[in-house]
Structure formats: C-alpha cells, structure tokens
Amino acid sequence: MDLDSSIMRAAGMRERDRRHVWHTWTPLREDRAQAMFSHGEGYRVWDVDGKEYIDATSCALSAVCGYRHPELDAAVERQLRRLHHFDLSTGSHEPAGLLAERISSYLPDGLSRTLFVNSGSEGFEAAMMIAAAHHAHLGRPRSRVVSFARGYHGSTLLCRSLSALPRVGHLFEPPLPVTHVELPAAPARLRRPDALQPLMRAFERAFGDDPGDLPMAVAVEPFLNVGGGIMLPPGFLPALRRLCDRTGTLLVLDEIFTGYGRTGRMFAHQHEPAAEPDILVTSKGLSGGYVPIGAVTVKEHLHQGFRHDPVLGGLRYGHTNSGHALACAAALATLDLLDKHDLPHQAEVLGARLLERLAPLASTGRVADVRGLGLITVVELATPEAATRLVAQARRRGLLLRRQGPEGLAVMAAPPLTIDQQGIDTLADRLWLALADQ
Ligand SMILES: Cc1ncc(COP(=O)(O)O)c(C=O)c1O
C-alpha cells in the first residue's frame, strides 16, 4: 500500500471509531482514536501510522507475556481446533480442571478450589457472595465489608461501592454496607515501616469491637493500583491476617493486577509469610490478556459450606463464558511461560534495574516520588498538569505510560514481564527524555 492510501486508511479507521465506539472509562472530550494500534510483538506495539512504542502499560496491565507470543498463539489455536468451549454449569472441559489445579499448585494447601469468571469485577462480585454465604452457613449472618477508600475492585455496582475513589462513585444506593479506610499517610510515605501502626489502627477502628457488627470480609489489594500506585508498609498483610483471625472475618485479596509474577513473586502476598487469603481474586495476567478470564480461588471449607446450604445448595452464580476453554488454554500457556522463564524472578531483577535508573528523577525537582515493586514503577509528579505532559511527551518519544490515582499524579510503567534488559534501558531513556522535554 502506498503512503497516501495508508494515511487515508488510518484516517478512515479513526473517523469510524470516533463515530461509533463508546470508549470505556473515557470522558467524551478525550480522543482515544488518536492512539489506535494495529499490531504488536513482544513488549512493543505499532500504531496505525506505523509508529513503534514500548508498551509500558502492558495493554490493560494484563499482557504479562507481551504481544504475539508464539507459544500463547499456538496454545489458543490448538484449543480452538479441538473445542472452543463447553458450558461449566452443565458440563466441563479438560483445560478448566488443569487450570484450577495449576493455580492451586502455587498456593498453600487449603486454597484448592477455583471459580472461573471473565473479569476482575465479576470475580469480586462472586467473592462477596461467597463471603456473605459463608457467614450465613455458620448461622450468624454478616454483611459489612471493610476496604480501602482508595481501593479499586471493579466497575460493577457492588464493586464500585467497595471504593470511595471519586470517579468510581455510583448512581445507586450501595448494595451492601461498606466501611472505607482512609490512608493515614501520603502515598509517598505509606511504604515506610512507621506507617504500619497508624494503618492497622485505622483497620481496627473500621472493624469495630461490636460482636454484632463485625465485618464479613475485608477486601484489599496488596498494592493499590487505580488508587495511585501505592505500596503498603511491610507487615501489613500478616497484621491484617491476624486481625481477621481474631474476628472471624474473611481476608479477600485482590490480586487482579498484582497476580502472576508482576511484583516479583507469583502473587504479591507471597512477599511476606503468613499473609495468605481466604479468597484470592485474580485476572489480568492470568491469560496474559489474550482471552478474558478471572479466577476466584477459595479455601476448600468455604466451598464445602455450600453443601449444607438449605436455600441454594450451591453457589448460583456464573456467566455464559465462565472458564472459557480458549481462556483456560491461554492461561495454562501463560503459566508455562512464567514457570519456564521464571518470569516472577525476571520481574524482580528487571524491576530493580528500572527503579535504579528512574530513582534519580526524584532529585530533579520535578518529581515528588519514585517507587516500585517488581515490574511496577511509579513516578509521582507534583501536579496533574506535569503528569499529563509527561505521559504525552513519553508517547511522542515512543513510550506508553499509564496514569493512576484520583489526583492524576502517579505515572506508572508496568511493561510485559518478558521485556529484556535492553528494553528496560530504552524505556528508562525515553522516560528521562520525556521529562526533559517538559
Ligand atoms: C486491582 C484491580 N481490581 C479490580 C479490577 C477490575 O478488573 P476488571 O477490569 O477486569 O473488571 C482492576 C482493573 O483494573 C484492578 O486493577
């Protein structure tokens, strides 16, 4: 195709998109058709004008193995030629069992039962239903949930009510009572050990001491993603685990973003001992973002509780495409790659390198904080305008970054875990240049 016709073709694609596509989460004044991509390979993507980018957004923070990975492509194609799917509410298929067993193999013994869904939000909906049912099965119903005000667990009605982030507000009364915990320190200071005590005091207050009003569950991310790329103080999850044990509250961990190697461990809670959840919700990286899937992995006794459920006799929850066979096949291939190349370790090593390259940004006077966990690096700017400029200049320089946080100050680099050292160095160079461009 000659240059003129490819320019016209790209213009046509953008025009069609602007006329017909309702972009998720997007204010109407913003133009997503500007950033229209045609193909990708490894940690890079190309837009419809032929410009190349390092994708430090990993698609939707989901492409842990990057784009067009030959082994992922082959696994999905292989499954497609056998059986695209069979409904798990009326039957089963082999990839579902293999995947559920495989997820459990990375977790302690009790966490051995997985319900498949199609997204993180659906996973959280299910987790809340399971938590409520658990307390009903014990004969002392509870319904209240404790969560971070800055937490984010999804965009469905129930999930939205778990968050107090301004853009996640909803138009209806919350479907269940929620106590939101505010951060006792600024995002840049929360990772310090001295933040643990005030944070735990805030959670203890939120739990309360009225035996008739204890929470059914506490829902937290080990690293606050949408809330601003915030790291929590060491010891937080084990302390929360102990508080849950004392009060009979279920610990529901949202590892929708942090799961599957991203933070330098298979799951982020595995950075600390004695932090295992009762319910673990994962999605994004599970299938490398190839085919939608989410997993709700629970302790077996929660599953067995439904055997005696006098009303339902089982969890009456699911979706047409829950545990889609193509998604399970993609997920099994993703986990094979994570294991074969020890990508969690790679994330730790390359993340440390990226953080080392970017940490000096904090002394330029333009950056408020630089922090990181595995292959998540956050550059926090002093003003939202500066963050907007940094993301725009980075894009001009061939680097895709993501904004997070209600103030729009956190700029996040989270490339595919399959990126190499050269890719990390180019990413860091482009980010430095983008900041200098301002
Ligand atoms: C920590 C966290 N929880 C939940 C969700 C919701 O997942 P989904 O968009 O797949 O519904 C997200 C998505 O960004 C997330 O980052």
TrEMBL record:
InterPro entries: Aminotrans_3, Aminotrans_3_PPA_site, PyrdxlP-dep_Trfase, PyrdxlP-dep_Trfase_major, PyrdxlP-dep_Trfase_small. CDD domains: OAT_like (cd00610). GO terms for molecular function: adenosylmethionine-8-amino-7-oxononanoate transaminase activity; pyridoxal phosphate binding. It holds the Pfam family Aminotran_3. Transmembrane segments: none annotated. The keyword Protein transport does not apply. Keywords: Aminotransferase, Pyridoxal phosphate, Transferase. GO terms for biological process: biotin biosynthetic process. It comes from the Bacteria. Belongs to the class-III pyridoxal-phosphate-dependent aminotransferase family. This is Adenosylmethionine-8-amino-7-oxononanoate aminotransferase.
